[in-house]
């Protein structure tokens, strides 16, 4: 090969080398995993309960609904339960202008209520007996009717781990404050008039409230209500 051919070959190699060099790829951006929300000790599992209660999945329970001791100006006496239906909170008055606040689920439109009554008594792991009116609307509940003795206690029971029974003038109103294993339902209007708390919270309330305590339910102006007083 002559000098001219040799130089031409080098030139071709140089040009072809520039063309063939791949463009470096931009580094891939790897999204860091979202941190798992830390479960506070008050929502840990409760393995020593009659029916062991699992840890609360706080990814389905916004922090604003978590149990908390708060300032709460009120003229109601210590021990009173105040259900703030519009804002989805239950307050247990613990002292002058102080209360323990719980996030709650409330009755859906048409089955909500408001007024003054008495929290007559409490039950651990209660049986659930849907009233006859509910059975008439939902015939599939007939096996749990009053006549059939209700649903046995357990994690699938709609009343959850505890129930507080609300009376007016010495008579059962059929409304309850009770537990639920469904944290996603807190802050919503989902039940048939009852007030629901996650099981860990209703156990805490059950252990700190006293039979005969007054209860005040603030009406939600956006919903229809049965006034019990």
TrEMBL record:
Keywords: Cell shape, Cell wall biogenesis/degradation, Glycosyltransferase, Hydrolase, Peptidoglycan synthesis, Transferase. PROSITE patterns: LD_TPASE (PS52029), PROKAR_LIPOPROTEIN (PS51257). The active site is at residues 178, 194. Coiled coil: none annotated. Residues 79-218 form the L,D-TPase catalytic domain. PANTHER family: L,D-TRANSPEPTIDASE (PTHR30582), L,D-TRANSPEPTIDASE ERFK_SRFK-RELATED (PTHR30582:SF24). This is L,D-transpeptidase. The lineage of its organism: Bacteria, Pseudomonadati, Pseudomonadota, Alphaproteobacteria, Hyphomicrobiales.
């Amino acid at each position: 090969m002559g000098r001219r051919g040799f130089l031409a070959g080098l030139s071709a190699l140089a040009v072809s080398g520039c063309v063939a060099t791949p463009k470096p790829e931009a580094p891939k951006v790897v999204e860091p995993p979202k941190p798992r929300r830390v479960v506070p000790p008050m929502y840990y599992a409760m393995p020593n309960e009659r029916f062991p209660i699992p840890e609360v999945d706080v990814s389905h329970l916004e922090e604003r609904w978590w149990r908390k001791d708060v300032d709460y100006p009120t003229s109601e006496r210590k021990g009173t339960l105040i259900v703030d239906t519009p804002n989805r909170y239950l307050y247990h008055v613990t002292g002058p202008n102080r209360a323990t606040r719980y996030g709650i689920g409330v009755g859906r439109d048409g089955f909500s209520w408001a007024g003054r009554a008495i929290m007559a008594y409490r039950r651990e792991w209660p049986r659930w007996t849907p009233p006859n009116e509910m059975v008439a609307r939902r015939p599939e509940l007939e096996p749990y009717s009053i006549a059939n003795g209700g649903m046995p206690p357990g994690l699938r029971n709609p009343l959850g781990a505890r129930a507080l029974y609300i009376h007016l003038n010495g008579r059962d109103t059929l409304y309850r404050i009770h537990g639920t294993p469904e944290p996603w339902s807190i802050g919503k209007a989902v039940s048939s008039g009852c007030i629901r708390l996650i099981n860990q919270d209703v156990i805490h309330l059950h252990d700190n409230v006293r039979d005969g305590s007054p209860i005040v339910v603030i009406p939600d102006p956006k919903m229809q209500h049965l006034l019990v007083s």
